[in-house]
Amino acid sequence: MFDWLIDPLQFSFIVRALIAAVLVGIVGSVLGTYIVLRGMAFLGDALAHTILPGVVIAFLFGWPLAVGALIAGVLTALGIGALTERGGIREDTAIGVIFAGSFALGVALLSRSGSYTVDLAHFLFGNLLAVSAADLWLIASLGGLVLLSIALFYKEFLVISFDLTLATTLRLSTRFFRYLLLLLIAVTIVVSLQVVGIALMLAVLVTPAATASLLTHRLPPMMALSAALGALSGIIGLYLSFYLNIASGPAVVLVATLFFTLAYLFAPRRGLVWRRR
Amino acid sequence: MEKLRSTLNPRGVPHQAAAPTLEMAAVSVAYAAGGEGVTTARADSYALEGVSCTIQRGEFVAVVGPNGAGKSTFLKLLVGTVRPSEGEVRIFGLQPAGHICIGYVPQRNQIDWAFPVTVEDVVMMGRVGQIGLLRWPRQRDWERVRSSLARAQAGHLAHVQIGELSGGQQQRVFIARALAQEAELLLLDEPLTGLDIRSQEGILDILEGLRREGVTVVVATHDLNLAAERFDRVMLLNRHIIAFGPPEEVLTTSNLLQAYGARIGDAAGPADGEMAEADKTDEP
User: Fold this and answer.
1) Angstrom distance (rounded) from CA B31 to CA B39
2) What backbone torsions phi and psi does residue A106 show, to the nearest 5 degrees?
3) d(CA A245, CA A249)
4) Chain A / chain B CB contacts < 8 angstroms
5) Phi and psi (nearest 5°) for A158?
6) B101-149 pLDDT per residue, tens
7) The pLDDT value given to residue B43
8) Whose C-alpha in A8, A108, B235, B273 is 20 to 30 A from the C-alpha of B109?
9) Residue B230 near chain A (CB below 8 Å)
10) Nearest residue to A66 via CA among A4, A143, A162, A11
């Protein structure tokens, strides 16, 4: 009776994809709660796009893509951190300039290679079905590192997200925690690259957390629910992709978006339907 | 490990016992020093100019003045988010940056009330300095949170989401947070704005209770009547200190004219909503 559930699992590449989707769903969604609460969605999107040159360079030289992505991600996280600290021009303007500039550099570099459009599509929308065992180890270890950091600095991140002046009176190093958060976002983007790709990255970073924010009133349950939604979106999306023969990354994103829409309409007290009554 | 802990999350500096709670010597703050909101085309370039004052332990002080007088800047100097361009600020004999004993109750419009935290969570945030890095709240932290809430008459609100609080309850919760922080200097920015008289009285009663326990309380307010009735000393501010002393000596017609100019009628009682809006322009 549950053959349709079991059937896809006889392919090891599907099993690997499933594990990757669940891991990325959990890591991205937990970190995503801070992105949603702090209104950093644009920054997350920009950071995702700025890693393209790093990925392309790694690809052209035959290095592991994650290495290029990680270097580019860390560099841009530090760069954006420094730019937004200095002032002079508006923060979103500065980010916008870096965002478009490095994305263009990435595309330009890639356009020199032969299989330009196919490769670009993989970077942009992910290639979940090509996840290797080595990729899985990378996702698990880096993702674990992100979750560990969030757990270790939970109360500091909470204070800094909720009330910066309190952070000052407690003499927390706001600078350190701001950079740490940027780095964690960068690492999460690297981890999520193969699952959803650059263009759909926000669906991992923002959508499940936004759904959870409609359904809970406290941060720990919000993180737990967000993680559950992220993982579930990964699983359901992958099955949809298998049976309907649609691209895996977009399938995962569409499921996450469906969850959000349902919550937006029917969430107790905050949903559209509820408020109409 | 301890070194990392103290760098990222210092536990506060010891106080000089003989020093007053707060001392300012010839402090000026240029508009650019705040780093933000340099948008207004003012002729004068200082948010505060030549401010010198001393406030002793256990005093209950109101800071009054028109919009843009520098009341918020004055508080931010004490918090340490604004640095003086000239002069010196000393709290318990040392610079503000070393202390974790300064409690700050922000204006209500500065807080995201939709943030997913309960009252208890907010008050526990005040403990983060004492708990220390890489540690979780212990029994005594929870006890401190409960007793702080009780002292601010907000014990029954512990598990309420902050978005569901009334204006007076919001203020009491943030006062409780400062108590959990073990604040010895409590700063409040317009805590009474927009509250009904009963809530205002309730908050002032709580603050007076704290003062009796030796907490120094400094309140920025628009309300000259409350300042005259309930505070030990009043600081009349309009970029510099016009007068600072007992209310009856400070709130004289000539002083008020000097502070407010012809706008004295406005200052006494515009609608509360207007005040809350106007407060945003009060920054350097």
Assistant:
1) 10
2) -60, -45
3) 12
4) 83
5) -65, -50
6) 999 999 999 999 999 999 999 999 999 999 999 999 999 999 999 999 9
7) 45
8) B235
9) no
10) A143
CB < 8 Å to A163, chain B: 106, 111, 125
- Picking from A171, A222, A269 by the largest number of B CB atoms within 10 A of its own CB, the best residue to mutate is A171
The answer to whether residue B163 scores a pLDDT higher than 70 is yes
ipTM attached to this prediction: 0.89
Q: Using CA atoms, how far apart are residues B175 and B153, in angstroms rounded to an integer?
A: 10
Q: What percent of chain B has pLDDT over 70?
A: 83
B18 vs A119, B60, B80, B91, CA distance in Å? 71, 19, 22, 11
Give the residue from chain A lying closest to B100, CA to CA.
A170
Task: Collect the ranges in chain A with pLDDT lower than 70.
Answer: 1, 87, 277
Beta-carbon separation of B128 and A218 below 8 A: no
Distance CA(A54)–CA(A194), nearest Å, equals 14
Measure CA of the first residue to CA of the last residue in chain A; give whole Å. Answer: 41
Angle between helix A65-86 and A174-196 (nearest 10)? 140
Residues in CB range of A98: below 8 A, 6 or more apart? A46, A50, A76, A79, A80, A83
* Residues B100, A171: C-beta atoms closer than 8 Å: yes
Of all residues in chain B, what percent carry a pLDDT higher than 90? Answer: 71
Closest to A110 (Cα-Cα) out of A54, A47, A63: A54
Query: Angle at CA B138, nearest 5°, toward B136 and B141?
Result: 105
DSSP secondary-structure letter at B69? S
B195 phi, psi to nearest 5 deg: -100, 155
The helix/strand/coil state of A216 is coil
Furthest CA-CA distance within chain B? 60
Task: Extract the tokens encoding B49.
Answer: 């100019």
What DSSP designation does B14 have? Answer: P
- Residue B44's pLDDT band, with cuts at 50, 70 and 90, is low
Closest CA to B44 of B64, B34, B25, B29: B29
**Single pTM value for the model:** 0.89
B80: Cα within 13 Å, side-chain hemisphere: 22
Which residues neighbour A144 within 8 Å (Cβ) at sequence distance 6 or greater? none
Asked if A37 and B116 come within 8 Å (Cβ–Cβ), the reply is yes
Cβ neighbours around A54 below 10 Å, total: 26
Average pLDDT (B53-65) is 95
Test mutation, A165, A172, A223, chain B, max B CBs within 10 A: A165
Residue bearing tokens 């478009």: A100
Measured between its terminal Cα atoms, the distance across chain B in Å is: 39
Tens digit of pLDDT for each residue in A184-225? 999 999 999 988 999 999 999 999 999 999 999 899 999 999
